[in-house]
């Protein structure tokens, strides 16, 4: 029996209107569950039909709008879809109500989860929060646990994906981007004076150990070249530390100097080399994870000091080997050395020649002498640190070591320590006693080798000037 004709409100496949003053003949079947909406055509009386059923709703329906979960797994029927209602109350509890349709069998086991990102960017750290596991086509819940601070921040100002996954295979079936979710200001720890909550991206990322630089995320220990090929950075304790290098001098006519795209420093080239580069794969060396064109000269980038401007490396055009040499004239290289009071200072090691078998390998000699009976997984689970060169020999928690730089040797002027999964490195301080040892052989008419010490001539001159000022 037809009770109301809604055809006047039906235009271009869309009906929108209001039925005022429901009479008892409509209310009675509505409350009993016998009221239905029917769509008919000239040739079909029951083209679409749906019964209106009363259903109790949870606090999740306080959300400003529902989210449509769309099909991700193309093996699902095209009709597979879901509706999600999600909200956060004043007690920082999340409420959710999910209804699925067109999924096929109702006895399947699903997993409901959230993926929270600070923003859409390559390498962004993801927090995955599993809300529920359920059977059938409907799930709702109101967990009593308060959401962690970092999750509340990302819910309010980040990017959140809600996913329906198959429980056994973890395959994502349906997904949606969660929008218009407003987190109460009382749940956000960082509130400004005008009570407007803001996203503290730096602290949120730092807590996850990632570094955010030039719209991209990097993990702890990562090393990369910026948009400026002369600037390199590394990620330490959630902070990106960068240094810019000057180019070593090259001796050749100006017309023979060329700049290879993506590299910092020019190289000397003749017409034969240029023609070869146009007809074959680029020839070069790999050092520190970076590729350098054959014939290029550069300063090595060494964590945690940055570019060592007093050491010059060369990619041999014939052997394709990297050879690094410490400059003998320290005054010449220190025209460009950064001040020792800054975070990144030049290294003070001697002369080194590369070994292709250990190119861009960083290990500790101390670690090599230790015979560990523990598996790498056990060492890492006990607070050890990853060994970039040899994953099978991680550093143990509490272990101290000097970094071993490929083609440069052991840096005894820098001591690193592994503590609870994080490694920190410190440079040996330059003292008056060390400077005295450096120049004592010279006073006795003997040859002095400053490469054995961790002080530069510039630093020792500072001590001597200070000593003279006190005596005057």
UniProtKB/TrEMBL annotation:
> Pfam families from the entry?
VWC
Q: What is this protein called?
A: VWFC domain-containing protein
What organism, scientifically named, is this protein from? Photinus pyralis (Common eastern firefly)
- Report the PANTHER family cross-referenced here: CHORDIN
Q: Which GO terms describe its cellular component?
A: extracellular space
Q: Where is the VWFC domain?
A: 209-269
Lineage top rank: taxon: Eukaryota
Q: What is one Gene Ontology biological process annotated in the Swiss-Prot or TrEMBL record?
A: negative regulation of BMP signaling pathway
Q: What is the lineage of its organism?
A: Eukaryota, Metazoa, Ecdysozoa, Arthropoda, Hexapoda
Q: Which InterPro entries match?
A: Chordin-like_regulators (IPR052278), VWF_dom (IPR001007)
Q: What SUPFAM superfamilies would the database entry show?
A: FnI-like domain (SSF57603)
Molecular-function annotations in GO: BMP binding
């Amino acid at each position: 029996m037809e009770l109301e004709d809604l055809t006047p409100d039906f235009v271009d496949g869309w009906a929108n209107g209001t039925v005022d003053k429901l009479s008892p003949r409509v209310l009675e079947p509505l409350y009993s569950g016998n009221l239905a909406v029917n769509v008919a055509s000239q040739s079909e009386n029951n083209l679409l039909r749906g019964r209106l059923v009363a259903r109790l709703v949870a606090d999740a329906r306080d959300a400003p709008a529902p989210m449509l979960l769309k099909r991700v797994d193309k093996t699902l029927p095209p009709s597979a879809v879901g509706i999600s209602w999600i909200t956060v109350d004043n007690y920082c509890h999340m409420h959710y109500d999910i209804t699925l349709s067109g999924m096929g069998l109702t006895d399947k086991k699903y997993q409901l989860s959230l993926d929270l990102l600070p923003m859409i960017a390559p390498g962004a750290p993801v927090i995955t929060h599993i809300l529920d596991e359920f059977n059938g086509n409907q799930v709702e819940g109101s967990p009593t646990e308060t959401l962690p601070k970092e999750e509340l921040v990302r819910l309010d100002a980040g990017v959140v994906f809600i996913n329906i996954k198959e429980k056994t295979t973890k395959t994502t079936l349906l997904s949606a981007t969660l929008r218009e979710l407003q987190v109460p200001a009382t749940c956000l720890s960082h509130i400004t004076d005008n009570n407007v909550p803001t996203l503290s991206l730096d602290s949120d990322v730092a807590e996850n150990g990632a570094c955010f630089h030039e719209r991209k995320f990097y993990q702890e220990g990562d090393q990369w070249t910026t948009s400026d090929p002369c600037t390199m950075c590394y990620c330490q304790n959630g902070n990106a530390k960068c240094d810019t290098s000057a180019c070593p001098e090259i001796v050749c006519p100006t017309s023979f100097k060329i700049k290879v795209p993506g590299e910092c420093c020019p190289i000397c080239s003749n017409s034969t080399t240029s023609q070869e580069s146009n007809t074959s794969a680029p020839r070069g060396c790999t050092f520190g994870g970076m590729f350098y064109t054959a014939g290029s000269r550069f300063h090595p980038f060494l964590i945690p000091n940055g570019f060592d401007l007093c050491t010059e490396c060369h990619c041999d055009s014939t052997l394709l080997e990297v050879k690094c040499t410490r400059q003998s004239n320290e005054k010449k290289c220190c025209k460009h050395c950064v001040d020792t009071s800054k975070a990144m200072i030049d290294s003070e090691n001697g002369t080194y020649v590369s070994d292709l078998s250990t190119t861009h390998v960083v290990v500790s000699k101390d670690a090599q002498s230790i015979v560990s009976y523990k598996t790498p997984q056990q060492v890492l689970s006990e607070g050890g640190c990853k060994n970039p060169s040899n994953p099978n020999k991680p550093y143990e928690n509490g272990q101290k070591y000097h970094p071993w730089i490929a083609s440069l040797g052991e840096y005894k002027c820098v001591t690193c320590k592994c503590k609870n999964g994080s490694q920190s490195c410190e440079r040996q301080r330059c003292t008056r006693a060390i400077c005295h040892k450096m120049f004592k052989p010279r006073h006795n008419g003997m040859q002095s080798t400053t490469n054995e010490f961790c002080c530069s001539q510039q630093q020792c001159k500072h001590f001597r000037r200070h000593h003279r000022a006190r005596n005057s």
